[in-house]
Amino acid sequence: MPRSCSCALFVWCFCANLLSAAVIRGSVVENQTGRPLARASVTLQPVAGTPGGALAVRTNSYGAFAFDSLAGGAYVIKASKRGFMPAEYGQKQWNSAGVPVFLTSEAATFLTIRLPRYGAITGTIVDENEVGLPQQRVLAYRSTQPPQIAGQGTTDDRGVFRVSGLEPGAYLVRTAAGENDGVEYLPTFSKETLRVDEAQVVQVYIDEESKSENVRPVQGTLFTLTGTARTNPLGIPVTVTLISDMGRQTVPGPDFHFESLPPGPYELYAEAAENRRLNATYQAVFTRLNLNGNQNLMLALQPVRESQVALVPDPPDTHGVQLLARRKDLAGVGPAQMVPVPNDGILLAPGRWELSLMPPTGFYVSAFSGLGSEQNGRGRPDAWNEISFNNFTLVKFSLSPGPGSLHGTVKANGDLVAGAPVYLETYDPVSRRRITDLRTARSDLRGSYRFDGLAPGTYRVLATFEYQAPDSTALDLARARQVEAEAAKDLQMDLDLYSIR
User: Which of the chain's termini has less CB crowding within 10 Å, N or C?
Assistant: First the structure.
């Protein structure tokens, strides 16, 4: 065939493929007004079994986006923009999962994704005469145990505040400790109380401002905590963190200063790291104190010895082994961080921690032990394990081969459902609570789902579009199926798609 003919044939085939490729176009708009949202981020994720990978684009000035030259299949579309709650196409509620878009190889579809705004709490901080107090810091806490800081704001010249960027849910409003015209005010919850169990609960909704009752801060005595954190050798950068049951404050050292503190229990961490490598000079100190007056402390940081992490038996392939650690203190559980485990050693500062190990492929965690372990035979070793570090600690994870697995199909009215979210909860039937992070999968184009690497024990499983990350209460209401995983056993459980009627 002449070269010109072969080139023409190639161009014809290429154009024919473009003409037969699927297309998804659409717009992203503000939920309440319908106005287009420019420069919103839109991502496309193929459901398993659909050719191609994830794609991302931004909307133009008219809020429009397009994904061209797509293979036939199913796709999950998600939009996000700063100041708005992210949303997946097909969501019923703000916390529902999106519904996949199904396309044939020559189909074209147009979608509209509406982004709601976060909720907000407004109110007024007043003095004993109901006059607004300016420049007073206000914090909104999620109503959990312990409460978790979710947002903050500052009152204007009239004492009015607005705390924005809040997801729907229950919140507590609290003033920060402070001073105004020579008067000291203690941190006070809405309804004029110092006790969290007596605080007013404020319900927040999307696209709305919730009104908090006026808060009249209680007058009292505030204290100052100062000091110096010294390293050996001197000159290593230091951070000092003060923790109470209402949150954490971190400042650079070596000299530190915390002011306007109400009386009560605190924990104090000072940490220094010359660099982030395992062979770094790492120093720390941990102190508990009950603050009832001004204090000046001298903290002498000492190098921290590597704690030993043993995997028994030592697996032939450690590829994929991950150790997660999160600090546990008066403010609750901190964010999880990945801890490198080279040469079986880790560096963690003194204090309480929780550890979770992701074992190598083909193994599950069957036991956990360690000096200072507070597990005492309770809980699941494959979940979070609490331990107290004090300079040097020996931690041992026992591994067993042959983890279990769970697979099945998702159906609705007898028909297979592709792209359905499936949630797996590690569950303690005695305490009736979740004991590790929720695992999520989506059924593929054939309606099949699968979870591998399961340690023996009790799990609950649910397939639904009603939730993005259901908590244990939602799983209770949905009557999630309970299953007992066994070592080296592949269990089958076909699921009916749950819908709220």
Answer: C
